[in-house]
Amino acid sequence: MDAEDEIAPAVQSILDAARSRADPGGERVDIEPRSLSDALSATEADGRAPVIAEVKPTSPTTEGTRRDDPVELAQAMVDGGAAALSVLTEPDHFGGSPEYLERVREAVDVPVLRKDFILRESQLDAVEGDVVLLIVRFVDDLEGLLAAARERGFQVLVEAHTEAEVREAVAAGAEFIGVNNRDLAKLDVDLGTFERVADATAEGTEDVTLIAESGISTPEDVRRLRAAGADALLIGSAIMNYEESDNPAKIVRSNTERLTNAESRTRDNERTDGRTTETRQS
Ligand SMILES: O=C(O)c1ccccc1NCC(=O)[C@H](O)[C@H](O)COP(=O)(O)O
């Protein structure tokens, strides 16, 4: 898909900023990553839904900016049972920074995803993380960038929004594919996106870890997406929007613990769509 095809002005602005951001300079990173597969499997084995909890101070669809210490937030998310963390490093639209990621990764022992809009190889070297995000729609040479990320030791979460993008990600060799429920053309969120795309690509993604992204805010949402085939769930706003009377650990916990009794596991069992799969390891 053409990156400039139908895109929300806020997303165009994010892309423009990513294109004009100076290269980080310095050395090429060389990472010994914490395994995302192992972290997701361990949570699963513990009878909980694997949640990747996101530290996102603000976003184009959020009002205001949270000024909480990212390290305290991250620790609360891990205390709440997050299998892994995602940290925004995009500064201009999400209030993130590579330094936040560095501090968070030092403070926790779960894998940390660098959430940013990476368009070219040099941007991979801004900071060490365990996983980087590449968005199919925005990357010109997905295979090349995937290889460049892996050469540095990163695991890669390849983000898609449509069936065609998932197929592109699979063809490029992605092991982790995120299906974003947020349409970057309009910024609407529709959990049905994951359901439709996972169903349409069931044949072909058997060996892929599928992650449902965006718009997930209740244990019911988690159950619904797990039933549709999500191996893990990426949750940002629902945690970041916690009220003063609440806390992020409690919100993460509510989205994992309550699933213990749900009959929703997908990949290790016979799926409701009749697809039988094996336990995923990579
Ligand atoms: O979050 C946004 O408003 C946003 C706007 C434009 C492009 C990307 C955006 N978010 C990136 C993400 O992928 C989400 O932060 C992530 O999936 C978590 O979503 P949510 O739980 O809905 O915060």
From TrEMBL:
<dbReference type="InterPro" id="IPR054875">
    <property type="entry name" value="Indglycph_syn_Halo_TrpC"/>
</dbReference>
<dbReference type="Pfam" id="PF00218">
    <property type="entry name" value="IGPS"/>
</dbReference>
<feature type="compositionally biased region" description="Polar residues">
    <location>
        <begin position="253"/>
        <end position="263"/>
    </location>
</feature>
<dbReference type="InterPro" id="IPR045186">
    <property type="entry name" value="Indole-3-glycerol_P_synth"/>
</dbReference>
<protein>
    <recommendedName>
        <fullName>Indole-3-glycerol phosphate synthase</fullName>
        <ecNumber>4.1.1.48</ecNumber>
    </recommendedName>
</protein>
<keyword id="KW-0456">Lyase</keyword>
<feature type="region of interest" description="Disordered">
    <location>
        <begin position="1"/>
        <end position="69"/>
    </location>
</feature>
<dbReference type="InterPro" id="IPR011060">
    <property type="entry name" value="RibuloseP-bd_barrel"/>
</dbReference>
<feature type="region of interest" description="Disordered">
    <location>
        <begin position="250"/>
        <end position="282"/>
    </location>
</feature>
<keyword id="KW-0822">Tryptophan biosynthesis</keyword>
<dbReference type="GO" id="GO:0004425">
    <property type="term" value="F:indole-3-glycerol-phosphate synthase activity"/>
</dbReference>
<comment type="similarity">
    <text>Belongs to the TrpC family.</text>
</comment>
<comment type="pathway">
    <text>Amino-acid biosynthesis; L-tryptophan biosynthesis; L-tryptophan from chorismate: step 4/5.</text>
</comment>
<dbReference type="InterPro" id="IPR013785">
    <property type="entry name" value="Aldolase_TIM"/>
</dbReference>
<dbReference type="GO" id="GO:0004640">
    <property type="term" value="F:phosphoribosylanthranilate isomerase activity"/>
</dbReference>
<dbReference type="InterPro" id="IPR013798">
    <property type="entry name" value="Indole-3-glycerol_P_synth_dom"/>
</dbReference>
<keyword id="KW-0028">Amino-acid biosynthesis</keyword>
<feature type="domain" description="Indole-3-glycerol phosphate synthase">
    <location>
        <begin position="28"/>
        <end position="247"/>
    </location>
</feature>
<dbReference type="InterPro" id="IPR001468">
    <property type="entry name" value="Indole-3-GlycerolPSynthase_CS"/>
</dbReference>
<feature type="compositionally biased region" description="Basic and acidic residues">
    <location>
        <begin position="18"/>
        <end position="35"/>
    </location>
</feature>
<keyword id="KW-0210">Decarboxylase</keyword>
<dbReference type="GO" id="GO:0000162">
    <property type="term" value="P:L-tryptophan biosynthetic process"/>
</dbReference>
<keyword id="KW-0057">Aromatic amino acid biosynthesis</keyword>
<feature type="compositionally biased region" description="Basic and acidic residues">
    <location>
        <begin position="264"/>
        <end position="282"/>
    </location>
</feature>
